[in-house]
TrEMBL record:
PANTHER family in UniProt: CDAA REGULATORY PROTEIN CDAR (PTHR37804:SF1)
Protein's organism: Flagellimonas zhangzhouensis
Entry-linked InterPro entries: c-di-AMP_regulator (IPR053154), YbbR (IPR012505)
The protein's name: YbbR-like protein
């Protein structure tokens, strides 16, 4: 019974002692962390504001070390969470074959990003060398690799639209000079009878390790309309026949089959066409047959087909 009582008292004392020990340790730790210290911290570098004529290479420094004066809590935080420094390199200088940012502007930029109660004492370098290289800029057209299959009696009404229709390419001159166009991934559309719009990734040429492109995908779209057919009887106009002769052309008109949207066909008349038989194409030959030329036609039509391609003529003296 006595042993149990003593055991209970000892356990109680141990718990109280442990609690006091923990509290005193925490107080000591807080007191020490509140003090100012000088120590080193590493920062990852994030390069910003590159000049338009330069690109960042793959061998640029990724981190920088600085000696700081700060309290223990801040150093403890830096040990657990690596901080990032934004470095503006728009004012880099070209020295001895490389681009550098001197210590003074580098230190000033870093100080502006530190808390007010942190002092930057020194950096691990006098200059920050930045791996940059000269580049050119070029605008390259985009081509859609589209396999479009429309339903019967439907047409692509107008041109295919690509947005954006070009890509800005930035890179070494010897790389970007080889690029003439940028194509999309293949797009296959079948049995289409309505307007379409598709996002398509761009396919970039291989081996352009130092070249960047302004966009990675485009939108390819088109207007699809139902079309119909209409027949127009168009008179044939004679050109360059010799003076002093009466000209008889037979037939004196030709049938033209026009395919367009239904709304467009309502706006078209035979006067929108001009078909000519030009005597000068004979070049002195005695042939009496001339090829017909469609010298004028309406806009925004899908297809035109003349029923006859040639005519005969007779020259008669009055």
């Amino acid at each position: 019974m006595l042993k149990k009582l003593l055991s209970g008292l000892n356990q109680k004392k141990v718990k109280v002692f442990s609690l006091f020990l923990l509290c005193s340790s925490l107080a000591w730790l807080i007191s020490n962390l509140s003090e100012s210290y000088e120590s080193r911290a590493n920062f990852s570098i994030n390069y910003r504001n590159l000049p338009d004529s330069l690109l960042l290479g793959t061998h640029s420094e990724e981190q920088i070390e600085a000696k700081l004066r700060a309290n223990g809590f801040q150093f403890l935080y830096y040990n657990f969470f690596k901080q990032r420094m934004d470095i503006d390199i728009s004012q880099v200088a070209y020295q001895n074959g490389r681009y550098v940012l001197d210590e003074a502007p580098l230190k000033r930029q870093m100080e502006q990003q530190l808390s007010q109660n942190i002092s930057l004492i020194e950096l691990d370098r006098r200059q920050l060398a930045v791996d940059l290289y000269q580049v050119d800029t070029k605008i390259i057209p985009v081509e859609a690799k589209l396999d479009l299959r429309l339903q019967q009696n439907f047409i692509l009404d107008g041109k295919l639209r690509i947005s954006p229709d070009s890509v800005q390419v930035k890179g070494p001159k010897n790389e970007i000079d080889t690029i003439q166009s940028i194509k999309t991934v293949p797009i296959q559309l079948t049995n289409v009878n309505s307007d379409f719009s598709n996002d398509a990734a761009l396919v970039f040429p291989k081996g352009l390790d130092n070249t960047i492109f302004s966009v990675a995908q485009v939108k390819v779209s088109g207007k699809v309309s139902k079309f119909s057919e209409k027949v127009f009887e168009v008179p044939i106009k004679g050109l360059n026949f010799p003076e002093g002769y009466q000209v008889k052309i037979f037939p004196n008109s030709v049938t033209v089959l026009c395919k367009a949207t239904i709304d467009r066909l309502k706006e078209i008349s035979a006067t929108d066409f001009e078909i000519v038989a030009d005597y000068s194409q004979l070049n002195g030959s005695t042939n009496s047959t001339l090829f017909l030329e469609l010298s004028q036609k309406p806009e925004n039509v899908y297809d035109l087909r003349m029923e006859e391609n040639t005519v005969n003529f007779v020259l008669e003296q009055p």
